[in-house]
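Sample entry was shown:
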Amino acid sequence: MENIAFIGLGIMGVPMCLNLLKAGYPVNTYTRSHTHPSIPEAGAHLCDSPRAAAEKADIIILIVNDTPNVEQVLFGENGVIEANLQGKVIVDMSTISPVATKTFAQRIQAAGADYLDAPVSGGDVGAQAGTLSIMVGGSESAFQRVLPLFQVMGKNITHVGDVGAGQITKMANQVIVAQSIQAVAEALVLASKAGADPEKVRQALMGGFANSRILEVHGKRMTAGTFTPGFKVNLHQKDITSALNTARELGVALPGAALFQQLLSSCIAQGGSEWDHSAVIKVIEQLANHSIRDDS
């Protein structure tokens, strides 16, 4: 088995890393924040910098929360670029700018390593279960080399195209997820204000054409009022902003995504930047002057 560096141990990173450890891979880790105790308990070696983690690894995986943080991990002081990268593969599983991704890849390739952008979808539930969807951009040879690791962390794994294609695919995913969350929120508020039990409505809809993972997972969060983040409001806003910026450059209209961005902004204005993105139902409820839950 190849040695793995895993950089970024947040909501998604911890379960993804644990799945690699359970599969028997030797893993060196680095995170800026406090390391979850399950990581060293599972046998990971903790490193004090991205460079140290990368130096000991054949494949370097990172999943952090935005483009500047990826750049810092790769090219900042004691960054990955300072390690000997000859013959290695960098796998960025973060969700970041496709344009920046191509620039980062060029710099990494000049240092002798290959580069894959491989953002994921499926949330913390998919990360824990090892059932993530993984959208990969990069060379076929690098994809085949890393595929056994992807198969540990995910189930729907697609090599979409060249570097940057993974990020564009994830951008499309975030646009669809955004409007699906909005649709579920609107439907449940409508049903509840009309006098129907929103949880029973959700269960009924799951047997028909409106069924989706959003209705199943996020709809349940909405009816239960549990907004502990699987994916935070501020992170989805970052993704939608990136999609809107890219759409403007391409001359593409994304009216639904623009509206969802405003719903997220309203959540943030109410102190909800750390809420799960399903909490946009709170904004829909305010507009309807009606809560689907007994919040008393």
Notes: The chain has a mean pLDDT of 95. Strands lie at 4-7, 27-30, 45-46, 59-62, 89-92, 114-117, 120-121, 132-137, 154-161. DSSP finds 13 helices and nine strands in the chain. Residues 165-193 form the longest helix (29 residues).
